[in-house]
Amino acid sequence: METVIGIDIGTQSTKALVIDGQGRILAEHSQGYRVDTPRPLWAEQWPDTWWQAVLVCLRRCLDAPGVDPRSVKGLCVSSLYGGSGIPVDAEITPLHPCLIWMDRRAEAQVQWVKEHIDLDRLGDITGNGVDSYYGFTKMMWLKAEHPEVWERTRYLLPPNSYINYRLSGEIAIDHSSAGNIGGIYDLAARTWSTEMINALGLDHDRLPNRLVDSGAVVGGLLPSVAGSLGLHSGIPVVAGGVDAAMATLAAGATRPGNHVAMIGTSMCWGVINQRVDVGQGLISMPHVLNSDRDLYTFGGALTAGASVSWYVDTFCDEDKAAAGERGNAFERLEPPARELPPGADGLLFLPYLMGERSPVWDAKASAGFIGLSLHHRRHHLYRAVLEGVTFALRHNMEAGTQQGVTLDDHLIVVGGATQSDLWMQIIADVTRMPVYTYRENVEAALGAALLAGQAAGLIDLAQPLQHGTLIERCMPSEDAARRYDELFDLYCQLYPTLKPIMHRLNANHTSSE
């Protein structure tokens, strides 16, 4: 039986899995690690941590019963958005940790860009805006703050490109990873923008000149790596791409209009389309499938499931104690929360516990419960948190439709949130869309495996995907949807109304530290 391997390098763990030609998962393993945060708002990782985790995961998968390493016909790597990329020297030795997506140290560079660059021109070329989220601002920080590192840097490599080099000895960058850098990638021409690179004071020769589709073969597996793993040398190493787009592919998004919400610690909603309007505040890059034609446009909330966990951990010790070791607090909170009407008896929650990404783009935004009274109990606040995160989802979806994207008439949801029947119903009611989920665990490593399967000739991604069981989970209720329309309008008014106060509180807090 011929198989392929998908690998996903995540922020807190790496995962590998083996699938057959029908997309069935035969083995999987994950290896955890930590993000380095040497200062507030900094987040970085050394790439050797990823490489060692990749090797552990591959060995565990290949040792699993029913997996024959000699039957593996290819592998592909998905990875977290690597921000600045990894600065490596001419021998491809890392010179500095990678400044990953959550790193916010480049705020001074963001301000410089806003003052010195034509932002309309930047948006027209790149399809993206300016924020310390984007890799190009992190590159600017690295050049300004560590000129000695910059001087020795030969390439800036996204995580999957670096791992692909370790596997194949070849240097390349996929279009999704290049586009996600923002600022220096011409989204229409599908190449680096010399105009913007020069305007931003960056250096073209530090960017890999080989740009490839996510499904393209970068090179063959090196004999040294193959020998240590028991694999055939020379099997295809497929380029891969950004994990959010990979997970969307795994959930079946292959054509314009397909859209998927991934709700775990954070929330990422993405749609496949062929046009972009940077004014709506979303992020766009070439999709990992048909990247010469299709775009992946997405928006996200920084704290989705994290808002729920924060609430339960902070306020629900009584529920956790009552649930005991065999239960959890959610089992106690969900039944009474389900009996409440939409709006949790006059309560709204802004889920900006770490600032917010799209479409707000405000690192100083903060969270809050609005409408609290003596009547409210823990289950009211719990439902309000679920609703607030869902309003953030709708906020991003509406930004997508406002830029002219026609969405499919149903929403696919993947991630940890799917364990809550209440949350799925709230999502259906708030978005006015039927919600579908997968019976299986659908994630980025599976998307990578599907691209490997296509490159190896085992899977045809031009056909409808049959690798999972999609089930209808919830249908929207018209009465609830009408009430949520009213509440969403109020939700959208809260941020601009409270923004000045949020910023003053943030300034006072920062100055007192």
UniProtKB/TrEMBL annotation:
Which residues fall in a coiled-coil region?
none
Q: Which GO terms describe its molecular function?
A: kinase activity; phosphotransferase activity, alcohol group as acceptor
Keywords recorded for this protein, A-Z: Kinase, Transferase
**Gene Ontology biological process terms in this record:** carbohydrate metabolic process
Pfam annotation, one family = FGGY_C
Asked if the record carries the keyword Kinase, the reply is: yes
Spell out the family assignment given in the record's similarity comment: Belongs to the FGGY kinase family.
Protein name (record)? Xylulokinase
Q: What is the native source organism of this protein?
A: Halomonas salipaludis
What lineage, starting at the top, does this entry show?
A: Bacteria, Pseudomonadati, Pseudomonadota, Gammaproteobacteria, Oceanospirillales
